[in-house]
Write a structure and sequence with these properties.
Blueprint lengths: L2 H21 L2 H15 L4 H8 L15 H4 L16 E4 L2 E3 L8 E5 L2 E5 L7 H11 L7 E5 L5 H4 L2 H8 L2 E5 H8 L17 E3 L4 E5 L2 E7 L8 E9 L2 E7 L12 H21 L3 E3 L3 H4 L1 H5 L17 H23 L3
Parallel strand pairs: 4-5, 5-6, 6-7, 11-12
Antiparallel strand pairs: 1-2, 2-3, 3-4, 8-9, 9-10, 10-11
Helix pairs in contact: 2-3, 2-12, 3-12, 9-12
Bound molecules: zinc ion.
The site of zinc ion has 4 residues, from loops.
Length: about 350
């Protein structure tokens, strides 16, 4: 009978903890974290951990955090064995050109290619250009480069694609401004904003190339000019809508309430647009968040009857992703006492 007191003791402690939980000011924070955890499931675990549990160690990667403009001068290329990944055709007209950590995507249209996000400068040749060639696509067909936000891990390749192929660069207005202030020596160079380039204001825009339209939805927060998108792809001839989340982390927000509100409103906005178009695929620019590196190599495998495309998470899966982002932001904002 040694166990009874222990069990009672444990139960008592549990009841006490439950009572404390119900009264503590932290309970509202916990409620948002619980909502985020439920929405995340196993699928969006990394997004949940990185956004909701800020003290947890983050998964590393070459150059993580060394976002170009702030790093000052071109960083050395990390060892290829730490990042190189083969390119994959993911949908009939969408190609993954990422490293193991960061993603670039090529959307093939009837009038050329749209590249979405461009990774670090050192990845332009091995991943984007060689990747396109491996997949029997021609880099000279790149007509647009759409940048989700002006951090080096997503935009350092833009200037080279513009210079070499005349691609038009699309960026949010505020991120254009910060980009144009970079020194000419910045890694990858600085894209020029010419007549054909696109500056996206708060109202958003549509980029149409041939038979394909990308709806650009400003989602300020991660940076002031962050852009997210919805666009159609084909899965074995069938149209599927994609929602692309353009900026994720909130670690730099501090107690600046306006920034938290802006970020939360942005997640609700893109979730709304995604719901409107019935988006059933969720993409990001980090494999950590959408599993792109792993899923891309599953795509060529034979699908058994009833097996779905590996990237298909359903309309509910897309909504849950943005719920994780919004709920974690609500929790963090409260935890930090941001007003
Ligand atoms: Zn960023």
């Amino acid at each position: 009978m040694h166990r009874t007191p222990t069990v009672i003791g444990a139960l008592g402690a549990l009841l006490l903890a439950a009572a404390a939980y119900a009264q503590a000011p932290a309970s509202e924070v916990e409620a948002h974290i619980a909502a985020a955890r439920a929405a995340a499931g196993q699928e969006y675990r990394a997004t949940f951990v990185n956004l909701c549990l800020p003290a947890a160690p983050r998964g590393g990667g070459p150059g993580r955090g060394a976002a170009g403009p702030r790093a000052g001068g071109p960083p050395p290329t990390p060892d290829r064995s730490a990042w190189y990944a083969s390119p994959f055709k993911v949908f009939d007209n969408l190609y993954w050109l990422g490293t193991r950590q960061h993603s670039s995507w090529a959307l093939r249209t009837s009038a050329g290619l749209i590249v979405i996000d461009t990774n670090f400068a050192w990845a332009t040749q091995p991943e984007i250009l060689d990747g396109l060639t491996t997949l029997k696509l021609d880099p000279r067909d790149i007509k647009y480069v759409i940048i989700s936000h002006a951090h080096g891990d997503h935009d350092q390749g833009a200037a080279e694609l513009q210079r070499r192929y005349g691609a038009k660069v699309v960026m949010g207005a505020a991120d254009w401004e910060s980009t144009l202030q970079r020194p000419a020596t910045a890694a990858g160079g600085v894209p020029a904003r010419g007549a054909g380039d696109v500056t996206v204001g708060p109202e958003g825009t549509k980029i149409t190339l041939g038979d394909t339209t990308v709806t650009v939805v400003p989602t300020p927060g991660h940076t002031p000019g962050t852009l997210s998108y919805v666009f159609p792809v084909k899965d074995q001839g069938k149209t599927v809508m994609v929602a692309y989340s353009g900026g994720t982390l909130t670690g730099a927000f501090g107690t600046e309430g306006a920034r938290w509100y802006e970020y939360i409103a942005s997640q609700k906005k893109i979730a709304g647009v995604a719901a409107e178009v019935g988006a059933a695929v969720l993409l990001s620019n980090h494999s950590e968040y959408d599993g792109a590196y792993t899923k891309a190599r599953l795509v060529p495998l034979k699908r058994e009857p009833g097996e779905e495309h590996p990237f298909l998470v359903g309309t509910d899966g897309v909504q849950r992703y943005f719920t994780v982002m919004a709920e974690c932001a609500l929790a963090s904002k409260l935890r930090l006492g941001a007003k």
